[in-house]
Amino acid sequence: MGRLRIAAVAAHFGRDLEFDLRRIATLIDHARQSGADLLVLPDAALGGYLADLRHPDPDALPPALEPSCPELKTVQALAAEMTVCVGYCEADGARRYNAAVCVTGDGVLGHHRKVHQPPGESVAYDAGDSFAAFDTPVGRVGMLIDYDKTFPESARSLAVDGAEIVACLSAWPTSITDRAPRMAQDRQSRLFDLYDQARAAENQVVLVSSNQTGAMGGMRFLGQAKVVGPGGEILARTWSKAGLAVAEVDVAGEVANARRVLHHLGERKPFAYREG
Which domains does the chain have, with CATH numbers? Predict the structure, then answer.
């Protein structure tokens, strides 16, 4: 497949779906101008995330969208030849999920419902129950949402399923209980980068991490979008500001090179690991 241009987004999205779609259109346009083959938008890019993670207001939740809604159809049309991952609140009857889809102009390629929920989020969303990789024009991809990447098993499940690219879509805030005076000093800022690099290195995959910026209610989002190579090295990043982190990567070549001597997936000892 050769070299790919991969872009991760740091940007703010809120409850106004028309505004969100205009911003997505602008970001896709900028990514296309940069030659991007894959664009990863943040979690909740359609409708915004929660305004309060500890005590979500049931009357002020993100709009729940059907998987066949006009908004997602619009994102597909905007994507055209590009592969685009986008997060939204998914309606499934009376249930709501923090979800993401991966699309091109031809339709939906993959789907994920956030499995791991921080305290309070279960008031707003039901939890997903699986991780699965899927084939795309840019290779085999898997998706994680927010807190999923805190758990090594999440990304490992995708890598075992053949993913060479892991897209992590986030609306990741600064620390809620012990916020630092400067964002760069915040505990969650450090953890966000640590998880991105660790999940890439331990699975020897390319990890594409998007995140929201700005604020929603009492939540202040970190940004820090980045592309991480299979050795854990950061190839491109936005820091805390809005923008695109763009890197050109020979995904198959870099993954194969990382696994040439030490092949983490092949050297696992599942019989020695405790289940549950």
Answer: 4-272 (3.60.110.10)
